[in-house]
Amino acid sequence: MLIKTKKSYQLSEQAVTDESVYHSRRDLLKKLGYLGAGSLLAQSATANASALNFFSSKKEVLFQRQALKYQSASESSQILTPEAKVTSHNNFYEFGTNKGDPVENAQEFNVNPWQLSITGEVDKPYTLGYDDLFKRFPLEERIYRLRCVEAWSMVIPWVGFGLAELIKKASPNSRAKYVAFETLYDPKQMPGQDSRRIGGGVEYPYVEGLRIDEAMNQLSFMSVGLYGKTLPAQNGAPIRLVVPWKYGFKSIKSIVGIKLVEHKPPTTWNRLADNEYGFYANVNPEVDHPRWSQASERRITTGGLFARNRIATLPFNGYGEEVAAMYKGMDLRKNY
Questions:
Q1: Strand, helix or coil at 297?
Q2: How far, in Å, CA of 32 to CA of 56, rounded?
């Protein structure tokens, strides 16, 4: 099924991508014969989390290419972060606390079989198997900015589907006020869960949560891939959450449980340090972290670690038009 809807916040890939990258991807689409339809062919992955190419013609799973807009940031600052940096610069403490640990320690991470259960205050609980993650919902590509609470950011082309579609299928009841998420707990595969030294002393399994209106917002996204490929293990294979107006730690990885609940669920970083990491964690340049400013960020592009790619941070990471109304009347300094 190919979705052809056009929304006001859509942006052409050329507007956010380096020109050489843009043309090389268009050339590939032309060779495949799908440029006119604006669609791509997707392939389900095999037993491990290696990055398989969604351009393969073995599985005819069509997905819409949907790039979401940026607001007042300059166009030059929206160049996609190189794939090699997206897949090697990661926070995934289950595989180690250094940025390079996940790519080194997660290569044998086995994601098939996999089960993702949707339960709680719903009339139709259900479970998705590994293949269902790629087949049950139409896949889209969305280009989002990712802003880390550590004041660095990336621009990433994710592949996946709207979180709202996954939730609606379960038929939430009137008591569903929040959505709780849980990462796989498997210390044999995830060394950070087995060792406090490797995993930073975090209480596992990793848990996160959203308010139901946040989860149903059009921007909330379940990603099963990036850069046209299935998610690498270090990026949260086989399925992760992406909420682009919040700091990156809200975008929980390798999810096995989604539970709709009546009361606000615990979240890992809020439980660990509630004075530093609030439940909402909306990107807010006016609310500093206790140990650093959030007024600006280092955009990771083609330069090295000390490249001077400093840009101003935008409220809600620049997605205020789509999400600010959900927080009307709230004190965003108190509800950080």
A1: strand
A2: 9
Residues whose CB is less than 8 angstroms from the CB of residue 169 and which lie 6 or more positions away in sequence, other chains included? 118, 124, 126
Give the contacts of 122 (CB within 8 A, at least 6 positions apart): 170, 171, 172, 173, 176, 260
d(CA 293, CA 25): 37
The distance of Cα 114 from the centroid of its chain, to the nearest Å, equals 19
Find residue 26's DSSP bridge partners. Answer: none
The overall longest dimension of the chain from CA atoms, in Å, is 53
Residue type, 165: E
| Sites in the chain below the pLDDT cut of 50 | 1-23, 25-52, 54-77
pLDDT tens-digit series, residues 39-48: 222 333 333 4
CA distances from 118 to 172, 210, 216, 254, 255 (A): 10, 14, 15, 14, 11
Radius of gyration for the chain, computed over Cα atoms and rounded to the nearest angstrom: 19
pTM above 0.85, yes or no: no
| DSSP symbols for 128-163 | EETTHHHHSS-EEEEEEEEE-TTSEEEEEEEEEEEH
Cα→Cα distances 250→4, 5, 208, 269, 300, Å: 30, 28, 6, 9, 19
Nearest to 285 by CA among 314, 309, 310, 311: 314
Where do runs of H (alpha helix) occur along the chain? 19-32, 83-86, 101-105, 132-135, 163-168, 191-194, 196-199, 212-216, 268-272, 320-323
Place of tokens 């929304």: 7
Give residues with Cβ within 8 angstroms of 76, minimum separation 6: none
Per-residue b/e over 275-288, b at no fewer than 16 CB within 10 Å? eebbbbbbbbbeee
Q: Which of 77, 83, 150 has the alpha carbon at shortest distance from 299?
A: 77
Beta strands at 152-162 and 139-147: parallel, antiparallel or unpaired: antiparallel
**Residue 149: CB atoms within 10 Å:** 19
Q: Which residues pair with 146 in a beta bridge?
A: 154
